[in-house]
Write a structure and sequence with these properties.
single chain; about 500 residues; mainly alpha; Growth Hormone, Chain: A; two-stranded antiparallel sheet; 19 helices; about 80% helix
């Protein structure tokens, strides 16, 4: 009987490999962290509509609201490369856990802060912690997943991004309403979403830590946290320093966002000058650079719609805050279909010798066309909400489908020893779009009185990404399958090495 039961368990392990469990935990991490970062957009929209909080009696509320979102991504951007580098040094699992727990605590603090400057500083700190997640998540999937399922794994896991943005968009009105019942001052209702979702992130972070402990006990959390704190302290001082200097000089919110992007470019130059041995291959690779530049448009689009979609729908259709949030959720919810489908199609195309590039180019081009159509609907005014929902869903499905394909292309092209640095640099450069998008789009809304100009700018950038993806050369032999490796820590370094056995 024992032999039969043991054989049954062994069969279950073969039917459900460990890398799929890893996918689930990472998906949960993406869900809560994405909800935390997407929350600011609906909250800012509610503040503008109700003329409360930091946005009461502001001359250009959309520009200021966009700057608040952009400064979060300035912090998020500045730990992209350090997070990947530290993951290569201390282990990707270590940095993932630190990022999630950090984000949970900082998001909860966002809900109790009083004052615009303090709120911005805490959102920057939240971004600095969350910024370390992406490069380590992508690297861990690339390491632990068989090559023939790599793109599918990346697509399944990053579906959590769509789930998190959908949760933040759909439930923000409900959580704000709950806050109105809980807090004595109804103007403080906006605090409740940060408290609830921050607590959820903290719970998930603890669960992920427990899961990783079973795989790899004794992760060096203390050393890695101190190292990440050192990078983050410099990043916080730089972001807030530019904010204070810009305000003192009388610069507009848009120009402050532009200066924050300049900070990112300075970081790229600094990294290249100081760590050429680790990242020279990443920064000098023509095809990786093309993908990274294309991701400026990808991140611009992602956070333009994630941050402002509720306001766009409300303005174009004249609908209520709650109904606008439901319609806007079609944009985020499309990722639940798009991410895993794109990953699956990508792996299928590689197995059939087609390659990933045709899918990336085709899906991005279709998204561009649909975004242009959405812009014309918005420009016409009195838009039908269901037509807007259909266009948002369709464009976002193709947009989300292309992302895991492009990320798998990056993993195919980059040296596996530098995956953390490659993904970190990809998101560092791509986050230029995330920093500028909310602020530039908000400034265009203030200047024109509508959202159509911002939508057409977004479509033009996506068209540029199509051209950049066309110029990328796929890695030769990327379709050759290899087994997933079991990864163990090198003595004294915390880095991972592969053996031939399957997890």
């Amino acid at each position: 009987m024992c032999l039969i039961f043991t054989g049954y368990l062994a069969g279950m392990r073969r039917a459900w490999p460990a890398y799929r469990t890893l996918w689930i935990f990472l998906l949960l991490g993406w869900t809560v962290s994405a909800a935390d970062r997407a929350l600011t957009g609906p909250v800012v929209t509610w503040m503008i509509e109700n003329d409360v909080g930091f946005l009461a009696n502001v001359d250009k509320p959309y520009a200021l609201g966009g700057l608040i979102g952009g400064l979060f991504f300035a912090g998020y951007m500045l730990t992209q490369f350090p997070g990947g580098y530290l993951g290569d040094k201390y282990g990707h699992r270590t940095i993932i856990v630190i990022s999630l727990i950090w984000a949970g605590i900082a998001t909860m603090i966002s809900g109790v802060i009083t004052g615009l400057v303090a709120f911005i500083a805490v959102r920057v700190i939240t971004g600095l912690g969350e910024g370390a997640f992406y490069s380590n998540d992508r690297s861990l999937i690339a390491q632990e997943t068989p090559l023939e399922k790599r793109s599918l794994g990346m697509g399944v896991v990053i579906t959590g991004l769509a789930l998190g943005i959908t949760i933040a968009t759909v439930f923000a009105p409900n959580l704000i309403a709950l806050g109105g019942d809980v807090f004595a001052d109804g103007d403080d209702a906006w605090r409740m979403p940060f408290l609830v979702l921050g607590a959820a992130t903290l719970v998930v972070g603890i669960a992920v830590a427990a899961y990783f402990r079973r795989q790899e006990p004794g992760l060096p959390y203390a050393k890695a946290t101190l190292h990440l704190l050192a990078y983050s302290a410099v990043g916080l001082a730089a972001v807030m320093g530019i904010y204070f200097l810009g305000n003192a000089a009388g610069l507009s919110d848009l120009w402050i966002a532009v200066l924050e992007v300049g900070l990112a470019l300075c970081l790229v130059a600094f990294v290249f000058s100081r760590r050429q041995s680790e990242v020279g291959a990443v920064l000098k690779n023509r095809d990786l650079v093309l993908i990274n530049l294309a991701f400026i448009a990808v991140l611009w689009n992602l956070w333009f719609f994630s941050f402002w979609s509720v306001s766009i729908v409300a303005d174009a259709a004249g609908s209520s805050f709650g109904r606008s949030a439901m319609i806007a959720a079609f944009n985020a919810g499309a990722g639940i279909l798009g991410f895993p489908t794109g990953g699956w199609l990508s792996d299928l195309a590689v197995r059939r010798g087609i390659g990933r590039k045709p899918l990336v180019v085709g899906f991005t081009a279709l998204q561009c066309v649909l975004t242009i159509a959405f812009g014309f609907v918005v420009a016409a005014g009195a838009a039908n909400v269901w037509l807007m929902a259909a266009l948002l869903f369709s464009a976002s499905t193709f947009f989300n489908a292309m992302q895991p394909i492009a990320q798998a292309m990056l993993a195919d092209i980059a040296d596996p020893a530098h995956h953390g640095a490659a993904f970190g640099m990809n998101n560092l450069i791509g986050e230029i779009g995330a920093v500028l998008s909310p602020a530039v789009s908000g400034a265009l809304r203030d200047a024109t009185g509508g959202w159509s100009a911002a939508v057409f700018v977004d479509a033009a950038l996506i068209g540029g990404a199509v051209i950049l993806f066309l110029l990328v050369r796929e890695a030769s032999g990327s379709g050759e399958a290899r087994p997933a490796g079991r990864f163990s820590r090198r003595a004294g370094s915390g880095r991972t090495t592969a053996s031939s056995s399957t997890t």
